[in-house]
Amino acid sequence: MTIAPRLEAVLFDMDGVIIDSEPLWSKAEQQLLARRNLRHSPQLKTVMMGLDSSEAVGFLIKHYDLKESVSDVVEERNQLIAGLFRQFLRPMPHALQLLRSVRDSQIKTGLASSSPKELVDLALGRLNITGLFDLILSGDQVARGKPAPDIYLTAARKLGVSHESCLVIEDAPHGVAAAKAAGMCCLAISTSASEPELAAADRVVGDFDQVNLQTLQELMQHRPQRSQSTQRK
């Protein structure tokens, strides 16, 4: 006999899920590299998506053989993206409607972002949506960033729910990998990465207008389930 888990919490990534920021991150990196007379490669986007700031910058430093410290470049990159957030930040289409419907249904909501706390606070404050989340976690609040499962396991623990009862919404391959490593159901939106790149997710959609609360609940019901004998006591 198998027991379908009940949906108790939805955990949202931020960049590319709640906020339409992936083009802004690319712009910030273009500006950072232009200051060094270097050209940004579009192929770096998929590799860096979902990584925390230190890991992403470490990759840039290695790729371009920069003779600078990670901390200095992280600070510069964060300043550039913060400026772009203040000018151009907007929510992903239909994302806030989904967030509010989850919230209104009494299902717990969490934000689990690879971005540093200062940028998470800035983004949520600009959109006035901080209060829509029961929990907010940033990449600098966990030991290991995505694709490690730390941020999602920490979110479940802090929300007081089991990992089996959580559904994650992601847009990046590293984020999907983190969700699946945490043993969670994962819905991916293919606005930033391609559907094949997100194939590890339980379902991939092209836009949030294809998703509602019923979609999330049905996805939880139809994902591969553990037998009753192996359920935690």
Description:
The structure is a single chain. The chain is globular, with a radius of gyration of 18 Å. A six-stranded parallel sheet has the order 3-2-1-4-5-6, sandwiched between helices. The protein is built from nine helices and six strands. By secondary structure, it is an alpha/beta fold. Helices cover 42% and strands 11% of the residues. It folds into two domains: 9-20 and 91-230, Rossmann fold (3-Layer(aba) Sandwich), CATH 3.40.50.1000; 22-88, Putative phosphatase, domain 2 (DNA polymerase, domain 1, Orthogonal Bundle), CATH 1.10.150.
Helix and strand layout, with pairings?
Layout: E1 9-12, H1 22-34, H2 44-48, H3 53-64, H4 70-88, H5 95-104, E2 108-112, H6 117-127, E3 135-137, H7 150-159, E4 166-170, H8 173-181, E5 185-189, E6 203-205, H9 213-222
Helix pairs in contact: 1-4, 3-4, 4-6
CATH architecture verdict of the largest domain: 3-Layer(aba) Sandwich
Strand-pairing-aware structural class? alpha/beta
CATH topology of the largest domain: Rossmann fold
Count the E strands: 6
Look at the structure and name the CATH superfamily of the largest domain: HAD superfamily/HAD-like
> How much helix, percentage-wise, in residues?
40-55%
Question: Within the largest sheet, what's the order of strands?
Answer: 3-2-1-4-5-6
Which class of the largest domain in CATH terms?
A: Alpha Beta
Uncertain segments of ≥5 residues (pLDDT<50)? 226-233
Report mean pLDDT, rounded to a whole number: 92
The rounded distance between the terminal residues' Cα atoms is 16 Å
Inertia-based shape: globular
* Total domain units: 2
Q: How many H/I helices?
A: 9
Largest beta-sheet details: 6 strands, parallel
